[in-house]
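Notes for week 9. Today we move from apo structures to complexes. The key idea is that a small molecule is not decoration. When we ask for a structure prediction with adenosine-5'-triphosphate present, the ligand SMILES becomes part of the input, just like the chain. The input block below holds both the sequence and the ligand string. Read it once before you look at the output, and try to guess where the molecule might sit.
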Amino acid sequence: MTTVLELSDVSVTREGTTILDSVNWSVDSSERWVILGPNGAGKTTLLQIAAAFLHPSRGTAVVLDQRIGGTDLFELRPRIGFASTAMARRIPASETVLDVVLTAAYSVTGRWNEQYEDLDVRRAQRVLAEWKLGHLESRRFGELSDGEQKRVQIARAVMTDPELLLLDEPAASLDLGAREELVQLLGGYASSPFAPGIIMVTHHVEEIPRGFTHALLLANGGVVAAGSLGDVLTSEQLSQTFGLGLEVQETEGRFTARAV
Ligand SMILES: Nc1ncnc2c1ncn2[C@@H]1O[C@H](COP(=O)(O)OP(=O)(O)OP(=O)(O)O)[C@@H](O)[C@H]1O
């Protein structure tokens, strides 16, 4: 058991507006967390602190035993896998799928003159196969479907064997089939005892894979509830978080929610 993230009284203020308000949260390496909350609740801001991209305005954030603000972040960041639409925009459309994943070893996007070991290439190919992308390794990133691009982003994020994996809306904009394929793959990955601590932001309870263990509900920058999935994903607490009556149902580890 290793604590991978510890936030104590973390607040973020931008132009006089409080975006995160006194957040206390601890994540262990064995836990797989989902963050849920309405638009503008502060989910992405919270993830940016976990990714060591953002310093809190107040309070203390410790990521992989390094205090944000008191550390050389260039050494910390390669230990964190991060997949988000903003990161994906930095990937050149002409890059091959193999190179998108391979370049993670150097924390760059876009292959230049780096020399990669055979070991790196074999690892990238293994990761691509795990995320059902092996047949696409020579294709250009920009030519892939949304679902394939999302899986490539995750493959890139796990290429370096991160100690903490952060996923910002990995299933956003996917059709039902692509979503289910991704949720299944994420569930398999999350269930492995060798996977790192995982934090995933999502808008929909339907996107929570089996194998995820914990949830944090965020509204107006504050934590409504945080803890095990069973304790947190109740109709009452989800209704409070989204400000309307919701009924949550769980079937064999998957969730659905509808207004009542
Ligand atoms: N640089 C900034 N300056 C001012 N306000 C900001 C800044 N960045 C974010 N915000 C505001 O902070 C709030 C939280 O943003 P954040 O992106 O973290 O929310 P979110 O929960 O991820 O939202 P969404 O679900 O819509 O992606 C929003 O109201 C946003 O407009």
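The longest strand covers residues 3-14.
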